[in-house]
Amino acid sequence: MKLQKIINRLQKLHPKEIDLSLHRIKNLCKKLGNPQDEINCIQVCGTNGKGSTISFLRSVLREANIKCNIYTSPHVQHINERFVYNDEIISDEDLADLLIKIEEINNGQSLTYFEALTSAFFYGCKKYKNNLVIAEFGLFGRGDAVNILKKNLCNIVTSCSEDHLDWLPKNERTIERIIFEKTSSLLNSNIIVAKQTSNKITECIKKNIVNNDANKYFFNEDYNFILKENDFFYYEDKYGGLKIPKPKMNGQFQLENASTAIATLRILENLKIKDQQIIDGIKKAHNTARLEEIKSGKLKDMVKNNMLILDSSHNPGGSKVLNDYLQTLECKKHVIIGMMANKDHKEYISYFKNISSLTTVDIPNQKNAMSGIELKEKFKDIPNVQYKESIEEAIKSIPLKKNDLLIITGSLYLAGEVLNLN
Fold first, then answer.
1. Second-level CATH architecture of 292-421
2. What is the domain partition of the chain in residue ranges?
3. Which CATH number fits the domain 2-284, given the four candidates 3.30.40.10, 3.40.1190.10, 3.30.870.10, 3.40.50.720?
4. pTM here?
5. Backbone angles phi, psi at 87, to 5 degrees
6. Mind listing the pLDDT tens digit for each residue in 55-95?
7. What is the predicted pLDDT for the residue at 139?
8. Residue 8 neighbours by CB distance under 10 Å
9. First vs last Cα of the chain: how many Å apart?
């Protein structure tokens, strides 16, 4: 209750939920002693794959006994998930104390909620200043509050695609503009560019960072992987090759994310990561709500022996890799979907092929969600589409047969509701 009261106050400091400018957080961090200038940070940007790449980094670093502070957003179930210090999610009490400090120093000045959280994370790093920091910055990058560092260890650019287009002028809602926003302000240490969905996107990134004098590393040029039989993949870069068991996380796209994490950690030679630590870390990595099989709980009991998969993809790029995975499964697929209003709903659903049923639902407690009824209307050309008010009603309505798969997808916020219900 104490934490929620503080959060409620912080959310009232600015009339906008998001305001893409950096002067407010820079002023506040200056009052805090510029804690962001004291960290050794791996920064991660892109549209898809940020969370999974961070999960692989974290898992390998844990094997190497390198302590981490990690900042990600948004959270799935609890706001505490955004704040990891010394490899542990922060407690309610410690987070409340941290936010109270920010509130006191800010002294009622205009500040967005995300800026308050971000400044709190940087300030919290002072207690663990020798730890490696991994920080995700999203939306477009240039105006993201995380993007106020003067130096870092490296920048990772994960897969870039069209998302959050409503934040751009109508005549500039292009992948070129998105790439400009995400990569034009990258620092000049090391830049690792993950596999992209097309050569056009890779070339656009190259063009945009051509004048950045960072060391640059590109998938398929400086590092690569080959999928091998018997549940192994073979990774290779200038340091040599590694035969690695496939991770627990589903989907071949996770091998791309794993490879980007490996490339990053090998490039950062001072970390002295050993090959066996990479192998063990990749094998153990986990990312909540990303093609995650739900194996127990209330909702799992409702589907009995059928496989239940939860996926938080919410844009066309995420939908494509999700459906590439689904096409590898020889079974009937039933989909429950809820989405936020500002997404490209028709492009998202266009990647779903040969599904047996589609059920739209409302996302509870999200004022910016599209109603399930409206979503059904957008998907009216899909065979066997229906609307149900709740996730439980949707599950009950689907006539699952032996070996059928049920997947719930479309939004990170929906994923959080599923996990809470389960």
1. Alpha-Beta Complex (3.90)
2. 2-284, 292-421
3. 3.40.1190.10
4. 0.93
5. 70, 15
6. 999 999 999 999 999 999 989 999 999 999 999 999 999 99
7. 63
8. 9
9. 23
